[in-house]
Write a structure and sequence with these properties.
Aspartate Aminotransferase, domain 2, 364 residues, single chain, 2 domains, 14% strand, 3-stranded antiparallel sheet, 7-stranded mixed sheet, 13 helices, Aspartate Aminotransferase, domain 1
């Protein structure tokens, strides 16, 4: 019997006990779990939709898809038909399940490409489908280097994942170049853009700005609207790919709960709450940078996302994670969770309120 590897964050349990040694307890910055409330209007829509009975459409209600279309146009200048947008049960489910569906479409291919330091589910989606998970080299700015892909791997690739802004390091990939590489090699490029609203350097980037052919953009309300519990995501792009995936997902019963369609539409329709959340994350990240610098650890603001990617002075991310837990009561993620090439770093998620983060400042 084959079992999956241990869930990465379960491995942090041995460090959580150090929080008991501090007044105020553990400050957990290990997981990108929103702590702020979703907009009240979203919760009201969820509670009064009247969509509890019956089966909601797997592809997403017309209202949800139209709202997502309006958001993409309003915020990022993307012109795309609502028929090229479909719903998913949060972005993680889509990341984990899509390789299996693409393999059914192209059974002669068996490889999933993804950045060598990245969200673990890109690799796990390949593993769960019995496919090859092949990491792609990243450059010094933590951006994927598609020129390094072995031609033999490109010929076997079902898809390549890119992530901008990137988790964990906040890099900003050249999405125009990624789209061109995918079209040249006949490989769908799936751009995970769930942190797009939290871009700090330059304008937000989407692969959909470089044409729709052969590409998909994946979005989520988990981070944008603090609505991780609603499990609402959308994917958009190549018309044939969207149609194929939505038909497969319909057969397997992958669908968002009925009331969440209306709640998600309300969230996509509003930008004010996102601007407020952007400032919250920026304030928290700057405070964490202050804490780390005060503790003698170099840290700086990334180009995007709400994570700090910090080099361990000893070169060992687990060692730094242990020190921060034991000395400051602060739980962070060792970079090894995101791939062997990240083992010399740790990741801090700026997800706790400032008043909790300030407890750590007082402990330095």
């Amino acid at each position: 019997m084959t079992w999956p590897p241990p869930y990465p964050y379960d491995r942090l349990n041995e460090l959580k006990v150090f929080g008991d040694n501090f007044d105020g307890g553990l400050v957990d910055l290990s997981i990108g779990r929103p702590c702020d409330p979703p907009p009240a209007e979203v919760i009201a829509a969820q509670s009064s939709s009247g969509l509890e009975a019956g089966y909601p459409p797997s592809v997403g209600s017309p209202r949800l898809r139209s709202a997502a279309q309006g958001w993409l146009s309003r915020r990022f200048g993307i012109d795309i038909d609502a028929a090229q947008i479909a719903a998913c049960v949060g972005s993680k489910e889509f990341v984990a399940s899509t390789p299996r569906l693409l393999h059914m479409r192209s059974p002669e291919r068996d490889t999933v490409l993804f950045p060598e330091v990245a969200y673990p589910t890109y690799a796990m989606g390949a593993t769960l489908a019995g496919l090859r998970a092949v990491p792609v080299t990243m450059d010094s700015t933590w951006c994927i280097d598609l020129s390094s892909v072995d031609p033999a791997d490109a010929a076997r690739a079902l898809c390549v994942w890119v992530n901008t802004p990137g988790n964990p390091a906040g890099g900003m990939d050249d999405l125009e170049a990624a789209a061109a590489w995918g079209r040249q090699h006949g490989v769908p490029v799936i751009s995970d853009e769930c942190y797009i609203e939290f871009t700090w350097s330059g304008e937000p980037q989407s692969i959909l700005r470089h044409g729709h052919e052969g590409v998909l953009a994946l979005h989520s309300l988990s981070k944008r609207s603090n609505y991780a519990g609603g499990r609402i995501g959308v994917y958009a792009g190549d018309a044939e790919l969207v149609r194929y995936l939505s038909e497969c997902r319909k057969h397997s019963g992958q669908l968002i709960a009925g009331p969440m369609h209306e709640a998600g539409a309300v969230a996509f329709d509003d930008d004010e709450h996102v601007d407020i959340q952007r400032q919250r994350y920026l304030n928290r990240m700057n405070r964490l940078i202050e804490i780390l610098n005060k503790a003698g650890i170099d840290a700086s603001l990334p180009d995007g996302s709400f994570y700090l990617w910090v080099k361990a002075p000893s070169g060992d991310g687990w060692d730094l994670a242990h020190q921060l837990a034991e000395n400051l009561g602060m739980l962070v993620s060792p970079g090894e969770f995101y791939g062997p090439s990240g083992s010399g770093h740790v990741r801090l998620a700026a997800v706790e309120p400032l008043e909790l983060i300030d407890r750590v400042l007082d402990r330095v």
